[in-house]
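Reading a protein record of the kind used here takes only a little practice. To see the layout at work, look at the sequence and tokens printed below.
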Amino acid sequence: MVEVSLSGLLSIQLLVYIALPLSKIRVRVTGHIQHPGSYYLSPGSRAVDAVQEAGGVTEEGSVDFINLAQKLVDGDIVNVPEK
């Protein structure tokens, strides 16, 4: 909090917020995946990284309709559908 006083007549208090980059993002991996769950990944990670982190696709799963090159952000869900 920053307080500014103007000649003693008026005092203004300002809240200052600084946005810091996230050190990790949290992504949920669901569907036909070896180990579904939430994973912490580095910012700039892609859907393929999330699938790999979750152990890969099961025999019943398919990544044909997933954009594996998609950059992920905090809170994203990667769902691996059935073939």
Notes: The beta strands are 2-6, 10-14, 25-31, 37-41, 77-80. Helices lie at 47-53. The radius of gyration is 21 Å.
